[in-house]
Amino acid sequence: MLYTFLKDSAQFFRQHFIALTLITMGLGLVFELLFALLRGAFVDMPYAWPLLLMQWVGGVWATAAVVLYVRSSLNNQYLPPKDAITQALPWVLPLAGVQLLTGLAVGLGLLLIVPGIYFGVKLVLATFYLIDGREPIPDALRKAWIGSTGYGWIIFGGYALIYGLLLLLSQVIIGSLNLTAGYGPVNFIVALIFKPVGAFALVFGYRIYSEARKQPAKP
């Protein structure tokens, strides 16, 4: 089933590549520019957490926009990328809540390593239950936990493959271009180029979510 889900996701991603790229790279461009312009003001701050928070919010916004676009496309309704971005704005706060709670569960679980991975797999579909299912945050988390039952290895294998390849490719590029020091124009461009990979991961997650809703797996 993993191969089927990845193949279906790749086909959708290929068909909607331009729109998904416009969404992810469009928002990415805005927040990367803000990061580049403002980082001088936080040069004395060890971790520049306001800039990291800003980039995270941008990622949350892009996630919501991609999910709305995918949802509309699968319902045979075209949603222009700019409309997906604007319609996603009200979802930023609730989705941030879902991501924070999921991150907390995963972070606590990672103290023992395996539970953290398990919690991440069980809760990864919460984004789709929240936005597509219009569920409140507690119900989105609860239904994600239940809905992922029976799909655990598919979720783990798919995301491990997607982000594993991304990590490998990024390390090759960072090493070959010597991007380890500072934040220059090349870092800016590379960061933008990798934005659509997140969209592909969301398409894959939505594919599993759709299957889980049609045929809920039994515990």
Number of domains: 1
SS summary, helix count: 11
Q: Quickly give the structural class.
A: mainly alpha
User: Whole-number radius of gyration?
Assistant: 18 Å
The helix-strand sequence is: HHHHHHHHHHH
Cα end-to-end separation: 18 Å
β-strand number: 0
Low-confidence stretches: none
Portion of residues within helices: over 70%
Q: What profile does the largest beta sheet have?
A: none
Overall average pLDDT: 88
Shape: globular
- Beta-strand fraction estimate: under 5%
How does this model look, in words?
By secondary structure, the chain is mostly helical. The protein has one domain (2-214). It is 78% helix and 0% strand. It is built from 11 helices and no strands. It has helices spanning 2-15, 17-38, 49-74, 81-88, 92-109, 114-123, 126-131, 137-147, 152-177, 185-193, 195-214. Helix 2 (17-38) runs antiparallel to helix 3 (49-74) and helix 5 crosses helix 8. The protein is globular, with a radius of gyration of 18 Å. The model has no long low-confidence stretch (mean pLDDT 88).
Provide key terms for this protein.
single chain, 219 residues, mainly alpha, 78% helix, 0% strand
Q: Topology, please?
A:
Blueprint: H1 2-15, H2 17-38, H3 49-74, H4 81-88, H5 92-109, H6 114-123, H7 126-131, H8 137-147, H9 152-177, H10 185-193, H11 195-214
Helix pairs in contact: 1-11, 2-3, 2-4, 2-10, 2-11, 3-4, 3-5, 3-11, 5-6, 5-8, 9-11
Structure summarized in a few sentences:
This protein is mainly α.
